[in-house]
Specification:
This protein is α/β, with parallel strands linked by helices and 136 residues long. Helices cover 17% and strands 27% of the residues. This is VOC family protein.
């Protein structure tokens, strides 16, 4: 016997993407500057200390949390549960700017000509490229 429901299937959208690091404010400021966005809001913990920082362009939202016990992955040895891929029209200029903002460039670069791996100020890897296309 097949059971069908007349109720519609719930459909959701992603409200925000959340990231943890040793200093949420530093991460928020880094990614806001990297993307040309702004830190739009701060959220305090139970003691009134800001520990969460909302960064947005008006349509996409990232939240950066301060996690006292945060440990950056030992990449590439540690597998990553996820990371960001950021696209820029001028990748070499973006790389220079991101390094000036506090990113670092690890020696291990598995992307060849396709992407560059950088580490954000918390030590978490992210990639930069010209973006993806169907021919990529």
């Amino acid at each position: 016997m097949t059971v069908t429901s007349s109720r519609p299937t719930a459909v959701g959208t992603v409200a925000s993407y959340a990231f943890w690091g040793p200093d949420g404010k530093t991460l928020a400021e880094f990614y806001a500057a990297a993307l040309g966005w702004k830190v739009a809001q701060e959220f305090p913990d139970e003691n009134g200390v800001p520990t969460a920082f909302l960064v947005t362009d008006g349509s996409t939202t990232f939240v950066f949390y301060t996690a006292k016990d945060f440990k950056a992955p030992n990449w590439p040895e540690d597998e990553l549960p996820f990371h960001l891929d950021l696209a820029f029209t001028d990748v070499p200029a973006a790389e220079r700017r991101l390094l000036e903002l506090g990113a670092t460039k690890p020696g291990h670069q598995p992307g060849g000509e396709h992407w560059t791996v950088l580490l954000d100020p918390s030590g978490q890897p992210f990639c930069i490229s010209a973006g993806w296309s169907e021919s990529s």
